[in-house]
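Hi W., the 2-acetamido-2-deoxy-beta-D-glucopyranose complex you wanted:
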Amino acid sequence: MLFATKDMMISLTILWLVLVTPCSSAFWNTHNKIKTAVYYSPAIELGPGSVSNKFYYDIEFPRGHIALKVFTAEVVDEAGNPVPLHQTYLHHWVVVKYYESKSKLTTNTRYDLHRVLHVSDSFSNSHIMKRNSGICQGNILGQYYGLGSETRGTNTDIPDPFGIEIGNPAKVPEGYEEKWLLNVHAIDTRGVEDKLGCTECRCDLYNVTVNAYGIPLSPSYEGGLGCCYDQTQCRLKKGFQGPKRTLYLRYTAKWIDWDEYVVPVKIYILDVTDTLKISDTSSIDSSNHDCQIEYKVDPCNSESKKDIECVDVKRTRLPMQKGGYVVYGVAHQHSGGIGSTLYGQDGRVICTSIPNYGSGDEAGNESGYIVGMTTCYPKPGSVKIFDGEKLTMESNYSSTTRSRTGVMGLFYLLVAEQLPHEHRT
Ligand SMILES: *[C@@H]1O[C@H](CO)[C@@H](O)[C@H](O)[C@H]1NC(C)=O
Ligand SMILES: *[C@@H]1O[C@H](CO)[C@@H](O)[C@H](O)[C@H]1NC(C)=O
Ligand SMILES: *[C@@H]1O[C@H](CO)[C@@H](O)[C@H](O)[C@H]1NC(C)=O
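Structure:
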């Protein structure tokens, strides 16, 4: 259940400001100004060891026909101070677009989806989820934005003259409105016995044997989102007590008004667990995708690999039905990740994204956590994916004497189907 009503949600949006700064690009007409707004999610209540994984519907979001340029976020406390990951681990947040019927009979109905990463197509008759351009099955990984612990240190800027088009009234189905859904999954690790284990959602630490729907988990399932759902509790050190806290996801959007000079980019998210079977003869059918979102890194057999650094390499080969020019790329990994690369069919590197680990204590530099991912900004036009090209995605983790559970290997790509000079003809 969500504890926040819509009214609370609005009143808890304690800050909303729009700054207008001139746009520096000579490409654009000078009337097009970058606008910035800072918003707060509804309150997230967390006690030591507890998990919050909630879905906030109809969140504050930029409105109008615009091009999104930047989207950043961080977890803050009631005073607005950044909260470090070793206190509250930000497992993920995602922002999803949906259309809501204006003639809704269901104003106060909440569709408790539990896991937005797994939003089903049967959202309801009054809601239509509008996923990104692909490439997982159904609505899986259909978000526009979303990151995890690396949020503070990962660049999301979209270079000029590109942008993510939203709010185009011509694209909203008749009788519907465009809305946005935010899912925040946070784990309070103050006082827990095993911080890394809690962030890896190890089932034994959560004392969980059934999933969020009450269905028994397979005994071979050691950990992952199935064991750290909303309201679960990770094991604390004996006798630890700490106060409950009220936190928020503070998110910042930057955008410009849409005009004919903005070149739209499409959003793709590739998942290294996608087991799509491709043969060279069969046509590509997107329904054959099978993104699992998470996977497990097996322990390293140190006996047999004495001198070799133990690296777990996971690969998958995925066709892109439609290609284009890569404008931006970034991978998503969890602790233990050491980098991810996307290769073209001929083996050329499309993008390599490497995690940065913190080495201190303060928010944004937490030792042992991924605090940022490097990003790719190829010179527009220089990195092209061809229609139907089969890409290879590779996600590397260091492996240790114990398994890593619930790890991820995603690649988020922004692709322009035209270049600026082509776009304006
Ligand atoms: C774990 O769960 C079982 C069954 O739900 C319960 O009996 C037991 O007390 C729990 N253990 C802890 C440490 O919470
Ligand atoms: C991942 O591992 C493979 C195989 O060892 C290696 O060729 C590749 O360079 C690694 N990539 C990254 C980003 O670490
Ligand atoms: C992180 O903290 C360490 C230890 O205090 C410090 O040496 C390092 O410069 C910090 N890094 C950043 C990016 O602030």
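The chain has a mean pLDDT of 87.

W.
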